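User: Okay, second chain of the day. Same drill as before: sequence in, structure tokens out.
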Amino acid sequence: MESSTAAHQRSLEAASIAAAFRMTAEDNAEAVAVRTLDDSISWTWAELREKVDALALGLAGLGLRSGRTIALMLSNRPEFHLSDLAAMMVGATPFSIYMQYTAEQVQFVVSDADAEIIITEPQFLDVVLEARRSLPGLQHVVVIGADGELPAGCTTLEAVMDAPAADFDLDASVASLTGSDVLTLIYTSGTTGPPKGVQLTHDNLLTAVVAVEAMVQFPDNSRVISWLPSAHIAERAAHHYLPIVFGLQITCCPDPRAVLGVLPQVRPHWFFAVPRIWEKLKAGLETAVAGMPDEQQAAAQAGLDAAIQRVRLQQRGEAVPDEVNAAADAADAAIFAGWRAMLGLDQVKAINVGAAPTPVEVLEFFHAIGLPLAELWGMSETCGAGTVNPPDRIKIGTVGPPVPGVEIRIAEDGEVLIRGGVVMAGYRNLPEKTAEAIQDGWLLTGDIGRLDEDGYLTIVDRKKEIIINAAGKNMSPANIEATLKSSHPLIAQACCIGDGRRFNTALIVLDADFAPAWAAKQGIEDTSLEALAVHPDVQVAIQAGVDAANAKLARVEQLKRFTIVQGDWLPGGDELTPTMKLKRRPIDAKYQAAIDAMYA
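Assistant: Same drill. Structure tokens below.
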């Protein structure tokens, strides 16, 4: 077998992700490629290659060909990687559908992509079949893991693999792929209207994975966890394309809510999560400290304070006093090393956070306990790549410098512009939207930002979401919301209101995990989110959180009133996109009465 570096070099020079997969499978034949947590499925790269080729010929037997599209509505399971790769081998464009989508939403994306085949699993079959009624072009529904008889017009993955196209030359198909062929479609999360199909090419993703590897050098046989939705670019890039090119081992976690329990069992080398995950981890560790006997608690808190002080001094480029270093080192040996092992993050080479602003206190906390959490920034339109803090040169509060091969500049109105090999080929079926988004080779990101003297980018907010109050003052709602969420563990979500208003208010959603446990400790009998939203003790606790947040905000940004929403906001629901971004306009409409009451 070649050395890992030479093998990487070979796959990096491949003409397509499909060709890179075949090289990786050859160079890492006996290594495990993809597995389930219990190892009931554990495929080596050679086994995966064999299955991919068999399914590719089966899909060709159903009529899938180069330039066509195929839909995947699957949870995080090994068959996702198998199906996506098989479609790739015949030159088709696979794309994923969010698991929370309704039949109407499924119908929209499948119709827009013009897919003739969908691969799904029993839990989504009812939604798919309902959508199919309005999809005359959808000819084949392939079901994975079905028990018993399937409805008419459906078939199994095994049946497809058992009926290969007799006359299809798979080697020639892979060899004919070029860097400009469309590899996948990523449908945007739809915060501002119907989802748009972002067309990403083989070249786009090869550029992106090279850029990530240049920043984070992965050791041989590195491990990652597949747990984010495969319809999101972060999951596809981090836990699908990157492993394909670099031979990383993928462990599938089908329930994203269980990922924190999976970490210690996998001990990944790279872990990426949205801010909410890191906020929950921080709150959990702080709760553990608060529950210690007095003497231990005082020692742990003193160690944590020293470690945070060290982080802040290092970030400012100032000398760290010997006694601070000694106290932080002692706490690391006595407490933090144990925490890292308990969390399953004791072998990470890099840990990243993105998709929304992360409170500085959260970043400082993880740096203090020996987990240098780094913000990164990217979009579906840039393969999720853009800027990233290098693990050894992290600037807290920034999203880092541009990755290799990417240029960033700031327009006169503060908008971040980006160009380079990661920028999409365009939006599917939307030439006018593409022309609006890409001008003179630069992608207009819609984000407001600024670059510092070292070329590190700070994101202020989405251009369309900046609040301009009645006095004409511009503010970032995302910054206010991040500050509020980090001010009290009871707060899971917050939506800041204030555009065109005299002052700011907020809709607040309680944390579905923490709030009932907190309430039970307070002796509150009804711990449902609906009951807690109106409980006076909860109102008092949230007010304390709002006061703490206001102390960190500029006077004009401060929240004068708040309303606790009854119930939860779930990904893919009325208020949040599947990637947990706020749907601001639908929230304004749905909660208009509550909002008006705060300004009455």
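The domain at 466-598 is CATH 3.30.300.30 (GMP Synthetase; Chain A, domain 3).

User: Thanks, on to the next one.
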